[in-house]
TrEMBL record:
It comes from Bordetella genomosp. 7. It comes from the Bacteria. GO terms for biological process: bacterial-type flagellum organization; protein transport; SRP-dependent cotranslational protein targeting to membrane. Keywords: Bacterial flagellum biogenesis, Bacterial flagellum protein export, Cell membrane, Cell projection, Cilium, Flagellum, GTP-binding, Membrane, Nucleotide-binding, Protein transport, Transport. GO terms for molecular function: GTP binding; GTPase activity; signal recognition particle binding. Necessary for flagellar biosynthesis. May be involved in translocation of the flagellum. InterPro entries: AAA+_ATPase (IPR003593), FlhF (IPR020006), FlhF__GTPase_dom (IPR047040), P-loop_NTPase (IPR027417), SRP54_GTPase_dom (IPR000897). This is Flagellar biosynthesis protein FlhF.
Length: 770
C-alpha cells in the first residue's frame, strides 16, 4: 500500500487535492493539524501482488466446511468493507467540519445562500466548498452576488470558437444513449459548413447498433451537402480518415454507451487507434440527475487514452434546474463548449457563456419547491439535531428594537416587520436603491462604481421578472422645485413587460440652454448626449436581452436617433398627420375608424395607498381595448416612413370613453400584438410619476451628497425614485405602509414627496439592526 501525503490550508482544500490526485476511490488513512495547515495521508488499493507459493498439500488441515469463497467474492467483500469505512470516515469528517463553531450554517445569510444554491441544483459538496471561502460580514444580496461571480469565474467555457475549430481536426461526440449526440453532431456540422464550406467537412458514425443511425446521419449529410459514412472497426476508421484527409473538419458520431458499461474504455481505444488525433467532446444531458452526470463525467474521463477535450450541454429547454450540469463541469473541470436549447438544426446550438449559464441556473422563476433539496425547515431540523445552536440574542434584541421603533404599540409589529423586510429583500428596484444608498459612504464615485452593478442586477432579474421583453421607459423630471432652477433629471426606468419596475439607468442632469451660463459646461455636454448613446449603453450593458425603448411624443423620431434594429414604441398625439390607406388623415380619425378588441381591466396600482394617485387603485374597474393598423408618416423630399400604429382605449364600466392612446412601434404583431402594446402604454402613463418621484428623491438627498457632483446624485435619485414608484404600484408592497408612516416625523403625513426620505430612514434603521 502506497501512502500519499497532502497538505492544505483547510480541510476542504486538502480533500480537493486528494480527489484530484487519487480520485473518488481514495482511502483516507489519517488526518492531523500541522503548522502548514491540515495534513492528510491517503492511499489507493494497490494491484494485487504475486501470490505466495502454496504450502505443501500435507500441511493443510482437512476440515469439513461450506464450499470455499472464491477470490472474486473475497475481493468484493473486502472492497465493500473498505468503502463502508471510507464513507463513515468522510461523513464523520464532514460533520465535524460543517457543524463546527464557525460553521456556515450558524449565520442566517449563509444558510439562505446554502439553501438557494441547493435549490438551484448545485451539489452540497460544491456549495460547502464555496461557503468556506465566503467573506465575512456580507449582506444576503452581496453574498448572492459573490456566489454568482464565483460560479462564473470557475465555470470553464470555450473562450473563442477559433480555439476549437481554427486548426480543424477530428472530433468525436461521446456519451450515454439518448443524450442527443446525433442531433448535436448535425448542428455542429451545419455550423462548420457555414464556417468552412461543405467541401471541408465530413461526418462519420461508429454506431452500428441503433437502427437507422446511419440513415439519419446521411439525411443530414444530404441536406448540408457533406459525406456521411459508417465505420465498424479501427481498420475502417483509419482507412476512411485517410480517404477524407483533405477535409479540414471531420465529425464522428459514436455509439451511446452507459457510463457503467465496460465498453466505454473500448470505444475510447477505438478512437485512439484512428491514426490521427481525435478530440472527444462529452455530450451531457442537462436534464439528468446530478449523480448521473457525475458518473458519466468520471467514466468517460477515465476511459482510455487522452482526456475529453470538453463537453456540450444538451436539452437545456427540458432541464428544470441547470445547477447539476454546471456543478459537474466545475468539479470535473470540463470546459463547456456549446449548449443546445432545442431540436432545431442548426439554430438551437450556441457557444457557451459562463455568465448566461450561471444566471440561468440561479434564476428563480415561479416553480414548485425542489423535491430533492432540503427546505429551510429541514435544514433547521438537521442542525438542531447535530448540536444545540445557541440563539443569537443580540440579533433578536435588535429586531425587537426595530419593530418597536418603526411599528410602536402594535402586537403584530414583529410579524409585519418581517413581511416588510422580506418584500424589500425580494424587490429588485428596492434592492438597487439600497445598494446605491450604501455606496454613498464609499470614497469612489457612486455613479461610476454602481452603473455596471445596476445593469448586472437587471441581467440577473430578467429571466424571472420578464415574460419576453425588458422595457426601457425614457423620461425626464424637472428639478425646478427642488433647488436646481432650469435643470431636469433624465433617466430610463427599466421595467418588466409585466409592469414591475426593476431599476433605473443612464441618469443625467440636463440644463436648459438658457441656463448654460450658470451651469457647469461639462454638465451641459453630458445633458446633450443623444438618445443613440443611451441606447448603445443599454445594449452594451444588457447583451442578449430583448429590449424595447418606450419613448414619449417629445422625442426625436426613433428611426433617426436609435441604432438600426432597435425595438421601440413611441407615444403620439392624436393630431399627428399620417397616411392611412394612401389617404392623408390624422391619428384621431384613424382611431375612430378601427374595430377594437377587449384586452382586459386596466392595470391598477396596488401598492401603498398613500403613494398612489387618486383613483389609481380603482383603475381595474375600467376596461382596456386595443386595435392596430399600418400607417405611413409623410416626409418632405423623401418617401413616407412606414410604421405600425397601435390604438388603445380606456373605457369606463358604463361604456364611457375615458382616454384614447396612440403609439407607433417598430415591433410586428408577431413580436407584440396590439393588446400587449396597449398595456405598455398604460404602464408608461403610470410611470410618469416615477420621474416625479426622482425629483423628490433628489431633494431628499440634499443633506447627504455633495452638490458639486450632480451626476452621482442623479444616479442615486433615479434608483430611489424608481423604488418609491414600485412601492406605490406593486402588489404586496402595502406591508410597507405602516413602516413608511412611522419613519416620518410625528404628525407628518405620508405623501409621495415625503416617501424618499422615509425610505432612506428605513434603510438606515435596517442597517443598524442587521
Amino acid at each position: 500500500m502506497k501512502l500519499s501525503r497532502f497538505v492544505g490550508a483547510t480541510s476542504r482544500d486538502v480533500m480537493r487535492q486528494v480527489r484530484e490526485t487519487l480520485g473518488s476511490d481514495a482511502l483516507i488513512v489519517s488526518n492531523r493539524s500541522v503548522p502548514e495547515g491540515i495534513e492528510v495521508l491517503a492511499t489507493l488499493d494497490d494491484p494485487p501482488a504475486d501470490q505466495p507459493a502454496p504450502l505443501p498439500e500435507a500441511s493443510l488441515p482437512v476440515v469439513q466446511a461450506a464450499p470455499p469463497t472464491s477470490a472474486a467474492e473475497s475481493a468484493g467483500a473486502l472492497e465493500a468493507a473498505i468503502g463502508a469505512l471510507r464513507g463513515a470516515l468522510e461523513s464523520r469528517l464532514d460533520g465535524l467540519l460543517w457543524g463546527g463553531v464557525e460553521a456556515p450554517g450558524r449565520e442566517p445569510q449563509r444558510a439562505a445562500l446554502f439553501r438557494a444554491l441547493l435549490d438551484a441544483g448545485f451539489s452540497a459538496r460544491l456549495v460547502r466548498a464555496m461557503l468556506e471561502r465566503l467573506p465575512a460580514g456580507l449582506e444576503l444580496r452581496q453574498a448572492q452576488s459573490w456566489a454568482r461571480n464565483e460560479l462564473v469565474t470557475h465555470l470553464p467555457v470555450l473562450a473563442c470558437e477559433d480555439d476549437l475549430l481554427a486548426q480543424g481536426g477530428v472530433f468525436a461526440l461521446v456519451g450515454p444513449t439518448g443524450v442527443g449526440k446525433t442531433t448535436t453532431l448535425a448542428k455542429l456540422a451545419a455550423r462548420c459548413v457555414a464556417r468552412e464550406g461543405r467541401q471541408r467537412v465530413a461526418m462519420l458514425t461508429t454506431d452500428n447498433f441503433r437502427i437507422g443511425a446511419l440513415e439519419q446521419l446521411q439525411i443530414y449529410g444530404r441536406l448540408m451537402g457533406v459525406p456521411a459514412r459508417s465505420v465498424r472497426d479501427v481498420a475502417e476508421l483509419r482507412a476512411t480518415l485517410t480517404e477524407l484527409g483533405d477535409r479540414k473538419i471531420i465529425l464522428i458520431d459514436t455509439t451511446g454507451i452507459s457510463q457503467r458499461d465496460r465498453q466505454v474504455a473500448a470505444q475510447a481505444a477505438l478512437l485512439c487507434g484512428a491514426g490521427r488525433p481525435v478530440r472527444r467532446l462529452l455530450v451531457l444531458n442537462a436534464a439528468s440527475q446530478g449523480e448521473t452526470l457525475d458518473e458519466v463525467a468520471h467514466a468517460y474521463r477515465n476511459g482510455a487514452g487522452e482526456d475529453v477535450a470538453g463537453c456540450i450541454l444538451t436539452k437545456l429547454d427540458e432541464a428544470s434546474r441547470l445547477g447539476p450540469a454546471l456543478d459537474t463541469a466545475i468539479r470535473h473541470r470540463l470546459p463547456v463548449h456549446y449548449v443546445c436549447v432545442g431540436q432545431k438544426v442548426p439554430e438551437h446550438l450556441a457557444l457557451a457563456r459562463a455568465d448566461e449559464l450561471v444566471d440561468r441556473a440561479l434564476a428563480a422563476p415561479a416553480r414548485a419547491p425542489a423535491l430533492y433539496a432540503p427546505s429551510e425547515a429541514d435544514m433547521a431540523t438537521l442542525w438542531r439535531a447535530s448540536s444545540a445552536v445557541a440563539s443569537d440574542t443580540g440579533a433578536l434584541r435588535r429586531r425587537q428594537w426595530l419593530a418597536a421603533a418603526l411599528l410602536p404599540g402594535r402586537d403584530d409589529g414583529r410579524a409585519l416587520l418581517g413581511q416588510a423586510c422580506d418584500w424589500l429583500e425580494r424587490d429588485v428596484a428596492s434592492g438597487q436603491a439600497r445598494d446605491r444608498w450604501r455606496g454613498l459612504g464609499q470614497a469612489r464615485d457612486p455613479a461610476g462604481q454602481g452603473a455596471d452593478q445596476d445593469l448586472a442586477a437587471i441581467r440577473r432579474a430578467f429571466p424571472a421578472a420578464c415574460e419576453r421583453w425588458l422595457l426601457a421607459v425614457h423620461g425626464e423630471a424637472s428639478l425646478n422645485g427642488v433647488g436646481l432652477p432650469g435643470a431636469g433629471l433624465r433617466a430610463t426606468v427599466l421595467m418588466s413587460d409585466r409592469g414591475d419596475a426593476l431599476g433605473a439607468a443612464q441618469a443625467t442632469v440636463h440644463w436648459a440652454r438658457r441656463a448654460a451660463a450658470v451651469a457647469d459646461p461639462k454638465a451641459v455636454a453630458r445633458a446633450d448626449r443623444a438618445a443613440a448613446d443611451v441606447a448603445a449603453a443599454l445594449a452594451g450593458g444588457l447583451p442578449n436581452i430583448p429590449l424595447v425603448h418606450v419613448l414619449d411624443s417629445g422625442h426625436e423620431p426613433p428611426w433617426r436617433v436609435l441604432p438600426p434594429g432597435s425595438a421601440w414604441v413611441m407615444r403620439q398625439a392624436g393630431a399627428l398627420k399620417v397616411l392611412h390607406d394612401d389617404c392623408p388623415t390624422h391619428l384621431n380619425a384613424v382611431g375612430k375608424s378601427l374595430g377594437y378588441l377587449p384586452v382586459g381591466p386596466v392595470p391598477a396600482m396596488a401598492g401603498v395607498p398613500a403613494l398612489r394617485p387618486a383613483g389609481a387603485g380603482d383603475a381595474g374597474l375600467a376596461g382596456l381595448w386595443a386595435s392596430g393598423t399600418e400607417v405611413a408618416l409623410p416626409r418632405r423630399g423623401t418617401p413616407p416612413q412606414n410604421a405600425r400604429l397601435v390604438c388603445a382605449r380606456v373605457v369606463a364600466a358604463d361604456g364611457t370613453l375615458l382616454r384614447q392612446l396612440f403609439a407607433l412601434t417598430s415591433l410586428s404583431a408577431a413580436d407584440a400584438d396590439a393588446a400587449v402594446v396597449a398595456r405598455w402604454l398604460v404602464r408608461q402613463d403610470q410611470a410618469r410619476r416615477a420621474f416625479r418621484d426622482m425629483a423628490w428623491a433628489w431633494a431628499a438627498l440634499s443633506g447627504m451628497m455633495d452638490a458639486s457632483d450632480p451626476a452621482a446624485r442623479a444616479a442615486v435619485a433615479a434608483q430611489l425614485g424608481t423604488a418609491c414608484w414600485q412601492i406605490a404600484q406593486a402588489p404586496g408592497a402595502g406591508v410597507l405602509d405602516a413602516m413608511l408612516q412611522s419613519a416620518l416625523a410625528r404628525g407628518r403625513k405620508l405623501t409621495p414627496r415625503a416617501a424618499p426620505a422615509a425610505l432612506l430612514k428605513i434603510f438606515a434603521m435596517l442597517e443598524m439592526a442587521a
